[in-house]
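Report of the visiting student (M.T.), summer placement. My assignment was to run the structure pipeline on a short list of targets and document each run. The first record concerns Alpha-1,6-mannosyltransferase.
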Amino acid sequence: MTSTRVAQPEVKTKVLSKLPFRTGTAASAVWQGFAGSVMLLLGSLGVGWLASSSVLIRNPLFIVARTTPVAVIVATVLLCLGAALMLRGWLRLRQHLVSWDESSAPVLKKALILWVAPMMFALPLFSRDSYAYIGQGRLMQQGLNPYTDGISALNNYFSLGPDTLWTEAPTPYGPLWLWLEHFAVLLPASSPEIALIPFRLACLAGVVLLAIYIPKLAARHGFNPHRALWLVVLNPVVLINFVASVHNDSLMLGLVVAGLYYASSKRAILGILLVTASIAIKPITLIALPFVGLLWAGSQAGWVRKFGIWAATLGISTAVMGIMGAINGLGFGWLAALQTPGTVWIWYAPIGLFSNIVGFVVTLLGGGGASVTDVIQGIGQVASILIVMVLAFWKINLPSSASADAGLTANAGSAFTNPEAHGESQRYSQAVLRRMTWAFAAVVLMAPMIQPWYMLWLVAFFAVTGVKEGWQLRTVLYLTAFFTLIALTDQLSVFPWIPVVLVRSVAIGVGVLSILYVMFWDKKTRGLFVPSREPARSTTA
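After the run finished, the structure tokens were exported:
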């Protein structure tokens, strides 16, 4: 998946004529996304997550919104239509800003602000992880070890609002996030929602970091920074999962992208420190460390220098993590908790689905199906580690600058000309980070559990190393639509006396129909998913 750069303006014009381009104003797309975000806010009042100990649950507005079946169904419909409208606004922005020149920047910034602002005030949507953060902070407050004790060790833990799936599990997070969790529960408040404020601000900081460094890293590799900003940061799956759902992957990803930018810009120590800070949020970004070492070593490094740099990179990161562990008294306890997410599976994860189908068949035949499932999942994890090692150790052969330039074809979707991007340093950085992207992809795709926000890691890394127009971009669009739909049909907070089957059926029905409408029936956006030879043109948004 390598992107392309514009070589000659006249070729660019020719390509533009083949795109599913619609005339109109980008402002209409911006306000569509804003309206969708407001609808998500309103929908969260009825089916967003509230802890049973929250004072808001006794507020008359919330009582009506959450205990009346009609109100709950209306809130569910608002969520589905709001998400679909955000998706449509995002797609329409791409059509209006297809040239991706400097005039795109203020439009994209305005869209980002307007789309994020309403969701900052929404109740947590589609996930209760933010309430698990509070529970883990309570563990820290009471002197318990969150790497060995689950939230269930707390008295009245259920009133904090965490998902029961995780109440017995140790935390998979690093020391930096544990400190934030501890700080959050020290805030004087009578409602858990006040404790959520630090987590929301941390997730917002992650989005801001992405908005700064995704364009910078894309531009360093010769790709259009505005297109990268649109593709990643304004992606509705990013905003829904990072802002509305309050997932700490936002800060984790923002820090690792910032670290990769500095590592690729000859500021390796700063890069290592930022990536280490990312590891201290969620340790999965350990995968990035060997590739940061390759960036530090440079394209001309031999094996002696590479191993020396790898040792130095690991040493710096380990020392920083060791200091953090010494301060909080938990050491490297997070290493044992790395397997926590692997205890569950989901149907759209290839390894998860395959292992459980095989295990089910073996059980039917009288065998030990659970053991077979575990073995298959273990093989997948080992294979992913081996793939990461191969990608890190396999020699990188760079094409010459001349051959690289000769291979570039004009492409309006990645129209960006950067003379420096043809240098060896930039081409090496792109090659190393593309290797790293495939390493993350291997770990994600070979895990039994794939959360929607895992896709966002890959979208970010692929975007800064090149995503072509055509099937590559279309793949991202399909994944975005799919994971938007997955969010809508996932976790909704519904009181026991309200028929949950009815509410979930409404979510599935309205969600599927609205997303499919945007993908295949809307005359203005369907060409992005099923391109026609002569796309229809429109003068309105």
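Residues 1-23, 402-417, 534-541 have pLDDT under 50 and may be disordered. The chain is about 65% helix and 0% strand. I thank the supervising group for their guidance throughout the placement.
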